[in-house]
């Protein structure tokens, strides 16, 4: 026989445990009118007779009076159980009280936590809503009107909200209306028929891939780790600069119930020391040529030698001229005597 596993999720006091007992046809989950959750850990049990194939997983309630730390522990415990023992899980039953008329912020946060815990394609096809405390003694006309409002108003609100947050495709959530704790002697056949419809819906579903279920915080929807490096000068000399580089991290946290993020303090996770040597200074030598006049004695000697050279050259030119003149005159005389 194929198993059909159902996971009950809802706020403390909304009747998850009573619904689980009603489905299984036996009292296995603790029930109390006390505002504190009677379910402090994830519990599970099979049904009997014609519901022996039904396996119900009861979970601690959201928004429990024991505080956030207990809530975190409950959620982590639930996820760990689902990943370990939840193979074959088919349906998620969101439990709401019939007198709940508004799509409150608490319900919105619960829906978002469920969505983040099950980041699975097509997940919402596995989700239904069971309205508990839908008393069997309510007049039929009152029931029909209230049921119609729930089916139209809540379905639209839930789908719009889910589309805003996850971009999921449009679906209509199956809704069932149950009095899971009827008074003795009251006709509760309507609730029995609703449970049969719920089980028929669940049996047709394919199993959820429980390996993709993730732990999620109940306060912060997401936490982003920010990092940066901080450099501090330790010492500086003519030859080198010594600095310390601190690697810092902090958390950027987005709460379910707030639009603006909050930040944790920066924390140093590692430090390194860095030494930077300055380049050595190189001295460049440039040869400079400077003209200086020679000493006066050498200068006078040079002038004297120049004057003597010029005088000798003038005398040579004069003598040469005389020789040329003599030869020319002599040639003229010879020519004259010949005639």
TrEMBL record:
Listed cofactors: Mg(2+)
Primary location: membrane
GO molecular function: GTP binding; hydrolase activity; metal ion binding
Domain AIG1-type G residue range list: 1-229
Keyword Chloroplast found: yes
Pfam families (alphabetical): AIG1
BP GO terms, sorted: protein transport
Glycosyltransferase found in the keyword field: no
SUPFAM superfamilies, A to Z: P-loop containing nucleoside triphosphate hydrolases
GO cellular component, one term: membrane
Keywords: Chloroplast, GTP-binding, Hydrolase, Magnesium, Membrane, Metal-binding, Nucleotide-binding, Plastid, Plastid outer membrane, Protein transport, Transmembrane, Transmembrane helix, Transport
Annotated coiled-coil segments of the chain: none
Membrane topology type: Single-pass membrane protein
PROSITE patterns named in the record: G_AIG1
Record localization: Membrane; Plastid, Chloroplast outer membrane
Database matches in PANTHER family: GTPASE, IMAP FAMILY MEMBER-RELATED, TRANSLOCASE OF CHLOROPLAST 120, CHLOROPLASTIC-RELATED
Protein name: AIG1 family protein, putative
Lineage, opening ranks: Eukaryota, Amoebozoa, Evosea, Archamoebae, Mastigamoebida
């Amino acid at each position: 026989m194929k198993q059909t596993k159902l996971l009950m999720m809802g706020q403390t006091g909304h009747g998850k445990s009573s619904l689980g007992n009603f489905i299984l046809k036996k009292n296995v989950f603790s029930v109390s009118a006390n505002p504190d959750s009677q379910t402090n850990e994830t519990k599970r049990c099979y049904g009997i007779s014609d519901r022996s194939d039904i396996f119900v997983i009861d979970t601690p309630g959201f928004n429990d009076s024991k505080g956030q730390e207990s809530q975190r522990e409950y959620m982590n415990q639930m996820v760990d159980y689902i990943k370990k023992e939840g193979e074959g899980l088919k349906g998620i039953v969101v439990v709401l009280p019939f007198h709940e008329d508004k799509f409150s912020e608490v319900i919105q946060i619960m829906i978002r936590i469920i969505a983040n815990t099950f980041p699975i394609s097509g997940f919402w096809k596995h989700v239904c809503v069971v309205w508990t405390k839908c008393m069997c003694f309510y007049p039929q006309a009152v029931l029909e009107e209230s049921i119609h409002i729930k089916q139209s108003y809540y379905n639209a609100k839930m789908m719009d909200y889910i589309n805003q947050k996850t971009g999921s495709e449009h679906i209509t959530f199956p809704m069932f209306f149950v009095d899971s704790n009827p008074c003795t002697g009251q006709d509760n056949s309507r609730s029995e028929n609703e449970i049969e419809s719920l089980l028929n819906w669940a049996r047709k579903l394919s199993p959820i891939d429980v390996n993709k279920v993730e732990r999620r915080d109940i306060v912060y929807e997401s936490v982003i780790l920010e990092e940066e490096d901080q450099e501090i000068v330790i010492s500086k000399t003519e030859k080198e600069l010594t600095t310390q580089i601190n690697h810092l991290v902090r958390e950027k946290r987005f709460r379910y119930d707030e639009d603006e993020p909050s930040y944790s303090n920066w924390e140093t996770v590692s430090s390194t020391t860095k030494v930077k040597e300055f380049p050595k200074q190189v001295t460049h030598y440039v040869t400079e040529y400077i003209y200086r006049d020679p000493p006066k004695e050498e200068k006078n000697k040079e002038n004297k030698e120049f004057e003597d050279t010029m005088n000798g050259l003038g005398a040579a030119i004069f003598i040469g001229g005389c020789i040329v003149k003599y030869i020319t005159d002599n040639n003229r005389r010879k020519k004259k005597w010949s005639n």
